Amino acid sequence: MDVLTEGVELSQADLALLAELAKGVTVDRVGRRLDISGRTVRRRLRGICDRIGVATAIEAVAWAARRQLI
């Protein structure tokens, strides 16, 4: 199920990725936990950042936290 907020749609997988980062988990460790490569995590993060209009993963985490998505 996807989450739609402010015209931006994030999947549960996107939110899980952001939630892991919010806990302070490194990108490589997030990849291992989600069974994907660190490079794939970075690519997905870039896509999330582009969709929500922020420049960094930290801003993406803050964006999701402010909206109580994570």
Counting DSSP H or I runs of 4 or more residues, the number of helices is: 4
Structure summary, number of beta strands: 2
Specify the structural class.
mainly alpha
**Strand order across the biggest sheet?**
1-2
Q: Report the radius of gyration as a whole number of Å.
A: 11 Å
**CATH architecture classification name:** Orthogonal Bundle
Rough outline = globular
Parts with pLDDT < 50 across at least 5 consecutive residues? none
Average pLDDT number:
90
Largest sheet: 2 strands, antiparallel
Tell me the layout of helices and strands.
Elements: E1 3-5, E2 8-10, H1 12-22, H2 27-34, H3 38-52, H4 57-66
Antiparallel strand pairs: 1-2
Helix pairs in contact: 1-4, 2-3, 3-4
In short:
This protein is mainly alpha-helical and 70 residues long. The chain contains four helices and two strands, in the order E-E-H-H-H-H.
Account of the 3D structure:
This protein is mainly alpha-helical and 70 residues long. The protein has one domain (3-66): Arc Repressor Mutant, subunit A, CATH 1.10.10. Helix content is 63%, strand content 9%. It contains four helices and two strands, in the order ββαααα. It has helices spanning 12-22, 27-34, 38-52, 57-66; strands spanning 3-5, 8-10. The protein has a two-stranded antiparallel sheet with strand order 1-2. β1 (3-5) and β2 (8-10) form a beta hairpin. α3 (38-52) crosses α4. The longest helix has 15 residues, at 38-52. It starts with a strand and ends with a helix. The model has no long low-confidence stretch (mean pLDDT 90).
